[in-house]
Amino acid sequence: MFFHPLSALSVLASGILNCLATTPREPRWDDVRTKHAWGAVPEHWETLGHPAAGTTIDLHIALQPRRKNAVVDALYEVSFPRSPKYGAHLSREQLADIIAPHPHTLTLVNSWLKHHGVHPSSVSRSHGGGWLTVADVSMSHANNILSASYQLYRHAKTNETVIRTISYGLPVELHSHVKTVAPTTYFSSPRMLRHTPRLSHRARTMAAPTKAASVDLGRGLSRRDDIDFITPSFLRWIYNTEGYVPAATDRNKLGIKGLIGDSPSPKDLKRFMTKYRTDGVKTATYDVVLINGGRYNPKTPSVEGNLDMQYAQAMALPTPHTYYSTGGGLGLDPYLRWANFMLGLEDNELPQTISASYGGFEESVPLDFAESTCDLYAQLGARGVSLLFSTGDDGVGKDCTDTSGNVRFRTMFPASCPWVTSVGGTMGNPEVVASLSGGGFSNIYSRPAYQDGAVPTYLENLGGQYDGLYNASGRGIPDIAAQAHRCAFVYRGQDGTVDGTSCAVPIAAGVVSLLNDYRLSTGKPPLGFLNYWLYDYGIADLGLNDITSGSNPGCNTDGFSASTGWDPVTGLGTLDFAELEKMLDGL
Ligand SMILES: *[C@@H]1O[C@H](CO)[C@@H](O)[C@H](O)[C@H]1NC(C)=O
Ligand SMILES: *[C@@H]1O[C@H](CO)[C@@H](O)[C@H](O)[C@H]1NC(C)=O
């Protein structure tokens, strides 16, 4: 044992380990406790054995901030409409200050890494120091540091390979200082996070549509059955954005989160605009930012990339768009790097609105990882970003039996993170539920306070129906909805339609982006995290179209039914831009 003056001093100051203050010592690095472990290799993954000799990964270590709830508290202060600090979003520097770990945490983690022979030059810190990255760690070294057993795994459906371990541990002393280490037990790959919007019409059969929802329909004149497919003019009419002319396009930006392999095509975008929004033929362009080895292949676009770009643009034109393509790779995580990259952007580079049509089943996400990721989304909200995620396309779920044989409704992460706005699906006019709409209750996040006025009423009306299939104390999903059925789009030069909440998210994000434009053009800060505002008293009653008909079947049940007020299929409803715009004047 040797005396370690610095850590002893900060131990005293923080009071975390005050029982040790009188006997300072080098922590027992060999006293390791499991941080997270799966009972078996996660479903659909199979081991391919040890990675090739010489393979290295970067380890990302999330550190606890000095004050545990600092980010969520700050998020509340700047996002709750009646808070005195409403709209006073944090700058990059202010946020860095809030998330900075305690010096003792840093000392401890650094001394642990040093104990394992990690050279300080291979350790870098994210802005604010919330994350440490240890670069180029060999497999045997990573196994040693984390008491892990890293292997190469292949996903049986997509063939993607990743390097992960089914368990990892940390010295007991570090558990209260380290939130998570990645990549470890979260088995993810870009392709498995895709929601795979369904092509509802093969492109060729779309050549001569008979009835388009957009064609010559006055408000209220169309019936649901008449709609073969939906188009931007229908959406701009039904969500009441037609009369708005964006006026802050020098500052306002809309970001689209893409994963590797999902590129939009500028040619398809142009054809889409030529068909459906002629004033956008020239203005519909976008920047591309490659993150983490992301790629952009406009010549081989994907359904998802095209759909996201075409609908975000169709709603928010001529607002500038940026496509953030995030890479994958053996040891890379598609969530963390993206969020940390975005948080590293300067204040004037961050888009005010982001559309993200991705997610995976909640039960596949380790709690420590989910919390660390969700915390990054809270940070984006605190910086003034409205972040929207899709809820998935399987209603309450298919394949609902877990490994122990229990049937449970399934929910998606990150949609279940309380610090994002989750978007479900509707269809037709008048709007009803699109039955594919993912929705339900989180098993990892308890109900956030902002839902306390909305969700319990639904649960009461549900009575005992579905008891045991869902978690009544969980965060309710979604928050809002938008059209998700038969979205006309262009793919590789051909017309088609698509079903999926992947269509709903860019539509909703486009409307939110226009609201942000209005805020900025009237000299106000952007909306940032939306949910405190959306769930605030009266907003939903006037500014959202309540969807009350339909349900989201799955797991051999009818699923949840839409109802008056909030429901776990369409949330509070769909956005009415003109009404919400009026309400913004009172904010
Ligand atoms: C995965 O690989 C198998 C055989 O190697 C092949 O038959 C299958 O088509 C591949 N699947 C995908 C989605 O690439
Ligand atoms: C229900 O949700 C809470 C969080 O709200 C969680 O702690 C609990 O484990 C969940 N129960 C089940 C059975 O998943």
Description:
This protein is of the alpha/beta class and 587 residues long. Strands 11, 12, 13, 14, 16, 18, 19 and 22 form an eight-stranded mixed β-sheet that branches. Helix 1 (5-14) packs antiparallel against helix 4 (103-115), helix 10 packs parallel to helix 11 (367-382) and helix 13 runs parallel beside helix 16. It is globular, with a radius of gyration of 24 Å. Mean pLDDT is 89; it is low at 1-23 and 202-226. The protein binds 2-acetamido-2-deoxy-beta-D-glucopyranose (NAG) (2 copies).
How would you summarize this macromolecular structure in one to three sentences?
The chain has 587 residues and is of the alpha/beta class. Strands 11, 12, 13, 14, 16, 18, 19 and 22 form an eight-stranded mixed beta sheet that branches. The protein has a four-stranded antiparallel beta sheet with strand order 4-5-3-9. Strands 2-6-7 form a three-stranded antiparallel beta sheet, with no helix packed on it.
N-to-C CA distance: 60 Å
Give the low-confidence spans. 1-23, 202-226
On the 0 to 100 scale, the average pLDDT is 89
Task: Give the beta-strand count.
Answer: 26
Shape: globular
Bound molecules: 2-acetamido-2-deoxy-beta-D-glucopyranose
The profile of the biggest β sheet is: 8 strands, mixed
Structural class: alpha/beta
Radius of gyration equals 24 Å
In what range is the share of β-strand residues?
A: 15-25%
Q: How much helix, percentage-wise, in residues?
A: 25-40%
Number of separate helices: 16
Walk me through the topology.
Layout: H1 5-14, E1 32-37, E2 45-47, E3 56-63, H2 70-79, H3 92-99, H4 103-115, E4 123-125, E5 131-138, H5 139-146, E6 151-155, E7 161-164, E8 167-171, E9 178-182, H6 190-193, E10 198-201, H7 232-238, E11 254-259, H8 266-276, E12 286-291, H9 303-316, E13 321-326, H10 336-344, E14 353-356, E15 360-361, H11 367-382, E16 386-390, E17 412-413, E18 421-427, E19 432-433, E20 440-446, H12 455-462, E21 474-477, E22 480-483, E23 487-491, E24 494-499, H13 501-521, H14 531-534, H15 539-543, E25 544-545, E26 574-575, H16 577-585
Parallel strand pairs: 11-13, 11-14, 12-13, 14-16, 16-18, 18-22
Antiparallel strand pairs: 1-8, 2-6, 3-5, 3-9, 4-5, 6-7, 10-24, 15-17, 18-19, 20-21, 23-24, 25-26
Helix pairs in contact: 1-4, 2-11, 8-9, 9-13, 10-11, 13-16
The structure holds 2-acetamido-2-deoxy-beta-D-glucopyranose (2 copies).
